[in-house]
Sequence to fold (87 residues):
Amino acid sequence: MKVILDTNVFVSGIFWEGNFCSQIIEKWKNKEFDLVSSVDILDELVRTLKYFRIQIPENMIEEWRNLIIENSVIVEPTINLNVIKMI
Fold:
């Protein structure tokens, strides 16, 4: 199974152990599914972690980034969908 996880799942799973999101991340780490990601998703995650209200060290952010790069399929989308309308 191939799964795309958004920034919210990673942030919730990183900062709060034992919740549903951390369980999903553990399943990914245990190779129970293939993670599909993109450079845009990685950039958003890094940006969010850098400026999140709970601060974590820069090297930990880089470790998460590298973990995702090394253990996922990185794709380059050919279509950009704007499905969420901003008010």
The radius of gyration is 13 Å. The chain has a mean pLDDT of 92. The longest strand covers residues 34-38. Helices lie at 7-15, 20-29, 39-51, 58-70.
